[in-house]
Amino acid sequence: MSQAEQPFIEPCHHETLNSHTDKEWQPSLSRFSGPKYKALADAIEIAITEGELNNGERLPTHRALADQLGVTIGTITRGYAEAERRRLVVARVGSGTFVLGKTWESRDFSIPVNKKTEDDIIDLTLSLTVPARREQVLAETLSTLAQSRSSLSELLDYHTENGLPRHRQAIVRWLRYHGMEADADNILITSGGQHATVMTLQGLLHHSDTVVSDELTYPGFINATRQLQLKHLGLPMDDDGLIPSALETCCQQHQPRLLYLMPSLQNPTASVMPLKRRQEIIAIAKRYNLLIIEDDVQFISPENRLPSLYSLAPEQVIYVSSFAKHLAGGLRVGFIISPVDLQHKIAMALLSNCWITPPLMAEVAREWIDSGEAWQLIAWQREEISQRQQLLQQILSGFDVVSQPHSFHAWLRLPAPWRAETFVRHMKDKGVKLLPSELFAVGSTAAPQAVRLCISTPDSREKLRTGLERIKETLSSESIDIIRPMVF
């Protein structure tokens, strides 16, 4: 995964800072709720996301913007200060306030263009399936499909937006293997889990609707809410996940439309929401007519699963998942199960987005499920992840690490005085790539000093061992010396 060493880039030349002074930005705060100064900071953030404001651009003066918006100069001062706290802008004494802009959306959370150019780097940033015999299995599957002209012809045709019946039936069998029942008529096939989430948001919500999630959550969801211009609030968490009382207060104050959760394995904190907490969350959602997206993409063995939110409240929950973490990310086959009254809206969003998802990839997934290859791949991966988790616990014993026996990733809380960004930069210099907590923080949430590390990415246990030992060495012997201020 390609990352910037720092999640924000500050303009460094005076000429750059003054490169956009010929016209002034003219925001509107009518679309935002809450205090005016926060609305101004929100407007700046959205303008940056949409490209209306660019890095280095100078914002209007406090007085000019106050006159334009009909507010006090103090409101503008507080708004600019809030934007600076979020690291969206920087104030230059005697020069003005300039846009910094967030850069991680396009750089930190992406797949490397050419992984081979970084063979000497131990990449622990990506939550990917462990390399196995998938290439051989795919070759055999494609060869089998090629023997039937009628099957190939069908896979090249247009179909209804919810996918071929046999593909949906295969997903029913997949879910049953994982301890969950579903109706094939209630399944909508998508191009992966991210696509499933975005289609749900696009089909059910409107511009500026409020959505809520854990205060630390999947960056793909954060980016999706920004792209769709939704108001996204992050709520406090504890070791069991989202705190119910915080959700209740939010529902009373903000009337959110939708809640996004990963109860089976939270990304990035690797926590699992207990059954009692799931029931408490559902009770609140029902009380305030709050829809829930349950993201169940992560690799979890059937024996480690608790009842899904969808199983507990199918009328309240939209369930999204995919085969990415279990079989192969490149299949790009995901699916949505939603309450019956919402199916048409989500299907229309998919229809307007891509008409249908490619039947060929869904056919490959079906063949793997029906032939038993899927279960063999899962069993192999379960054993490999178990061995890697044992390696993780062995090497980082004594440090504050949260993980699960079946998890691709772990959450490492850093000892003082380490800061997440500093630690990530330092480990990169040592040939190990990690993701800082800030990448997962919603809005202006104060991110904890922690990093996410993925144990599934390295192509061998020995490579993983080397990376973990470098982390241990750094935490054990270098943290104080590296961060201690210089004394003259």
User: Could you name the CATH class of the largest domain?
Assistant: Alpha Beta
Radius of gyration: 24 Å
What is the correct CATH architecture of the largest domain?
A: 3-Layer(aba) Sandwich
Distance between the termini: 39 Å
Structural account:
- With 488 residues, the chain is α/β, with parallel strands linked by helices.
- It is globular.
- The chain has 3 domains: 14-102, Winged helix-like DNA-binding domain superfamily/Winged helix DNA-binding domain (Arc Repressor Mutant, subunit A, Orthogonal Bundle), CATH 1.10.10.10; 111-128 and 375-483, Aspartate Aminotransferase, domain 1, CATH 3.90.1150; 135-371, Aspartate Aminotransferase, domain 2.
- It contains 19 helices and 17 strands.
- A 7-stranded mixed β-sheet has the order 4-12-11-10-9-5-6, sandwiched between helices.
- Pfam families: Aminotran_1_2 (PF00155), GntR (PF00392).
- One of its GO terms (molecular function) is transaminase activity.
